[in-house]
Amino acid sequence: MEIVMSDLKIPHLLFENDIPPYTSGEDVTEDLKLDALLPEGTTHYLRVKPSVEGTLLRRELFAAMLADASSTASMLHLKELLSEAMEAGECVKNAVSDNAKSLIFPEFAAKMVAFYLKAATDKNYGKLYSNFSKFFKTQTESEKFISLCDRLENIQKTKKELGDLCVDIDGIKVTLSREPAQTMQDKVAKCAEKYGVEIKRGIGGTCSLQKSIIEAKAKLYPKQFAEISEFYRVYGDFFPTELFEIIPEFTLAVGLVELTLKAQKAGIPYCFPEFTERKELKLYDVYDIALLLKDGTRIVPNDVSFDESEPFFYLTGANGGGKTTYLRALGSAALLFSFGAPVFCRGGHGCLIGSVWTHFPKDERFEGSGRFADEQRRVDEILNACNIGDIPSENQTAPSLVLLNETYSTTHEDKAIACTSELAGRLYHSGSFGLYITHQHDINEQTIPFLGVLVDEADSNRRTYRIERRRLGNRSFAADILIKYGITRDALEKLFSANDAVN
Amino acid sequence: MRYSLLYRDAENVSSSADIDSVRLAIYDLNIDRSVRAFCKNASEAERFLSVLSEPLTCVNDINYRVGILRDLLLFPKLLEGLSSVLKGYDSLRSETEEMAGKIFRYGSADSAAATLDCAYERVYIYAHFFRNVAAYISELDALLSEYDVSSEGLNAIKSFCNEVANDPSIAEAEACAEKFRNETAEGYRFTLSISSDSLLRMNRAELISLEQRKKEKFDPIAVFKRKKKEEIPSSVEIGSSAADNIDTALSYALETLADNFEALANELYMRLFGMSDELKFFGAASDIEKALNAAELPICYPTVLDAECNSLNTVGICDILLINEGKNRRSIVSNDISLATDKDGILVRGDNNCGKTSFLRSIGTAQLFAQAGLFVCAEEFEASVRYGIFSHFSSAEKEFTDNDAAGRFEGEVKDIAEMLGRLKKYSLVLLNETFQTTAYKEGADGMKLILDALPLTKTKYIFVTHMLSVFKLFESSGANNAITLKTGENENKYKLIPFKFA
């Protein structure tokens, strides 16, 4: 018995089975700037619940793609074929009549056939891709697909037999011909050109041909339309439209490979860190890939080390010293590592990170009760999602990673210190990994370890962008930045006396 | 002279304020959200915001606008009527141009019949344009004469409309325009006045009259022949191409007439053009007034002083954004403040969610409203004009592609430095939790430096902060010219009260 394609389970490119649930925070890819680095509408896949099996399969795919210089072009070609087919499919779906559907369907079918034939060609991209192409290979060898291809050729010929048409609709004469007729717009344009006036051409959007015209054409060419309609009747449901849902998977795969190659060009290494059974994450020379959005040529890498004895850190230090950069490097690495994508570091190992959460400052544009309340609400969301209660939870095999960036900087100092200490304490004891960037130097903390950004005080407080495992002095070196932007008493007096002269 | 509802001198409109900074302030103060929530009509809200982003700096200009606003709010039917009439009026030209753009020239460019049809269509369109302009002005005259308006602006418009409506020359031109009733030249008998040069080349052709023909087929030759018998010198010979020739002459006459109607109509039209768009500002203001009334909040027309007075005094000022949260007079706490000439600014501290930002918003909003010629949400408001209105609200990180800023604090410093670079004399600077992105002590040092320098430009500031060190620094400096306020507690929650840092 022939298996109808639409009865089959559509394969994913990046997942062995169904897409797993999303476990990481919604803002995480935006906060870590991955949204700006990867194609739009694809980064949500990075937030899925990871599994060792799935991660290893994707790792195999990405490694193979990176080893084959033509992989991105090949994947892009597949994506383009599928995108074109989707566009044609939309037209079939939205066609104004059955005859219109029949007339458009062969175009859609031709694009789908091209995609199937290309997708059926196996590449040495690992098990995920093999499963994917095997599915299409089976389909292209099926009797129905072969007969569809045969008849498609004939139908294309039949369509060419449909000649010119001239109809009268509600007193308006309409001509439909292969050779475009001279239009009113042509005449207007001719006139406009003569007088040096620019006019707009085209309809500036998509507009279906009137139903009555198509129906008239069907009446004029009944034999050909019967043939075309029959083709649609037989094969109309052959191609499952669910297939289009995998387009973003192609886009992400290509995006990740292209990003890796771009980073490599900028001298940034990548690797696939080893998995360990132990609850730890130890990566060496981790790069903040987001800095590629800026200059990207002088990125200072740092090590990352989390384990059961030190799962959580405060990070303090000079403004502009690289705290947020470190946080982003860590967050991106954890997310990419758990997804099975290349990680931008020199090496390392770690356990699967179950979810990644970020808490960054937001604009003051919310309803209700102010910034602090909004901050607290977002903190609570993270605590709830990570299942972090007041009582320490049992050891998690795939710990969460919580990244807090200047949380509680919207209230007075005493309250900020109290809130910061309480939140950090809860996270430290929760079994989650985490990092808390803060300028609250007066935190009286004995348990939670500190990381600090190194400043070369002997060299005019030069920022080294190095992060070290130690608590530094209670300075954020804000004055350096004020001086850099001319905010000194003398400079302001000079500026305002000049302004006074101008105004 | 062009008339305007927004500007006393519509020919020379320019705002001396830094528009980008004001737009940022409108955003930071959430005025855009309030306005969009209060206004029923989205385009009125957007127009209102665009006017608000260009504060007036001349007291007379402000009073001009205030006068019109008061008239329109006093006579809501007048506002309604003007909206309706001016909406149609302002679309006249675009409609005319659209019609004229559809004139279709068929056949070859030399075809006289085609040219004639086009020429007639043009005169038909522009004669209607002229008639419509005159009719709308008469309608405006009738509408305005129903109300005893007192503003300088509306009285000037009223006077102009009355002059046009009663002008006999306009009435005569209207009578000519009225003759072009049919959409095509078919069915008309034209009378032409033609003159030629010494080589008998036609050098002038003007239409004398046109009349509706009775079932006769249009025949310009016949007209020409009749005229020839009566008026044309016998030396003019009519050749075989006479029909085309007459068509061409008639076309020329019609084209000329069309040009004249167009020019005349345009001249009148432009005097009042654009006011429907301007009226959106007042429509939005009316909606805002209704929202304030519904919430039973106070409304007053501010006393606006010259910039040199450099002061701000208000009683019972409220934050209109709170209406969006369903609050009203009973739940919104008002504040009083007197920022006299000899005071540099205001420092505000207090617990979260106790009204600090609301206070900042209320002052900023009132200042912008006052300089837009609007009422303000206060029992009393007297303020001098500000040449610049700047805000800095602590926010999320800036666009990441900004190459220069290395961190959030640096981003803030960069913004503040840019703001200081653009600062004008007699500005108002509104700062909310600035420099809290570094160690508070170090942020406070930086802020003290800036706040100490602002008075050099006669700029007033309001600074809301959690950095208590700032207050310490001011108290210990010995020359504290800042007013220090803190939020109240219990029954005085949301009320700002003066305090001294102990």
What is this entry, summarized?
Chain A is α/β, with parallel strands linked by helices and 503 residues long.
Can you characterise this structure?
The complex is a heterodimer of chains A (503) and B (502). Chain A is an alpha/beta fold and 503 residues long. Helix content of chain A is 45%, strand content 13%. Chain A is built from 16 helices and twelve strands. In chain A, the strands form three sheets. A six-stranded mixed beta sheet of chain A has the order 8-9-10-6-11-12, sandwiched between helices. A four-stranded mixed beta sheet of chain A has the order 3-7-4-5, covered by helices on one side. The longest helix of chain A is centred in the N-terminal third of the chain and has 23 residues, at 71-93. The radius of gyration of chain A is 31 Å and the shape is elongated. With 502 residues, chain B is an alpha/beta fold. Chain B contains 16 helices and twelve strands. Chain B has a six-stranded mixed beta sheet with strand order 8-9-10-6-11-12, with helices on both faces. The longest helix of chain B is centred in the first third of the chain and has 34 residues, at 112-145. The radius of gyration of chain B is 32 Å and the shape is elongated. At the A-B interface, helix 8, helix 13, helix 14, helix 15 and helix 16 of A face helix 14 and helix 15 of B.
